């Protein structure tokens, strides 16, 4: 029992050390994510993620086949009609100075496959959710991802890292970051499961059609902001009625 407790405490120390390392990374960076997720995802939580993703037939097939996204030709995608997923994705990468994910070798390891899948689809999810690449946009897409995968410690740690960075570096952006968190959470809860979608077969499809089929509402932001503004005005009005300054 004593040895087991020591192992648990050692794991906590390793986890804390790796967490503090990634706090130094930019909001959207997964940089040290590999090392962090090794500490953040244990066999039990991995099994919970797999069970959660297996609730759909598409998810079960994806986990069985473990296919990668494959090679992406940005210039070719950028020649597609401007309303298509392929064009908008390519435009997103080109405008932000980003490169397509590398072609990954097939792996039979479920954990490694899931980590590769997240890395490959991260910018696609940025596009389909209408999430910018600014700090708030990264928080929004990571929160959306948290709802789409089982609430794994990995995603919670990434969000915790971002909010700690907000507390240390960007308190003036706290409201925007919290609103982005709420938008991502609501969108993710409302959307159909995205895991396992063969995105490389949808490049030529209009993005609006894809969003409609998946029940993704990227303009929830304006509705949310209007609700927040209305709520704030209501609270102010009530405060004035009772003489609260």
From TrEMBL:
| One GO process term, biological-process aspect | ubiquinone biosynthetic process
The domain of life for this entry's organism is Bacteria
Question: What InterPro entries would the database entry show?
Answer: Coq4 (IPR007715)
Q: Could you identify this protein by its name?
A: Ubiquinone biosynthesis protein
């Amino acid at each position: 029992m004593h040895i087991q407790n020591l192992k648990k405490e050692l794991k906590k120390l390793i986890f804390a050390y790796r967490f503090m390392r990634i706090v130094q990374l930019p909001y959207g960076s997964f940089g040290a994510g590999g090392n962090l997720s090794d500490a953040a995802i244990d066999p039990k939580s991995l099994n919970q993620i797999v069970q959660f993703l297996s609730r759909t037939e598409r998810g079960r097939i994806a986990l069985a086949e473990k296919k990668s996204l494959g090679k992406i030709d940005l210039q070719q995608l950028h020649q597609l009609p401007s309303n298509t997923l392929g064009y908008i994705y390519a435009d997103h990468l080109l405008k932000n100075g980003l490169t397509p994910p590398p072609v990954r070798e097939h792996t039979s390891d479920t954990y490694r496959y899931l980590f590769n899948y997240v890395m490959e689809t991260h910018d696609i999810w940025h596009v389909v959710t209408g999430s910018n690449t600014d700090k708030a946009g990264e928080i929004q897409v990571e929160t959306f991802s948290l709802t789409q995968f089982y609430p794994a410690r990995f995603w919670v740690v990434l969000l915790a890292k971002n909010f700690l960075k907000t507390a240390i570096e960007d308190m003036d952006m706290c409201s925007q970051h919290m609103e982005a968190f709420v938008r991502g959470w609501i969108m993710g809860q409302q959307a159909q499961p995205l895991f396992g979608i063969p995105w490389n077969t949808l490049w030529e499809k209009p993005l609006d059609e894809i969003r409609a089929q998946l029940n993704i509402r990227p303009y929830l932001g304006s509705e949310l902001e209007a609700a927040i503004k209305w709520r704030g005005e209501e609270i102010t009005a009530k405060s004035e009625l009772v003489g609260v300054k």
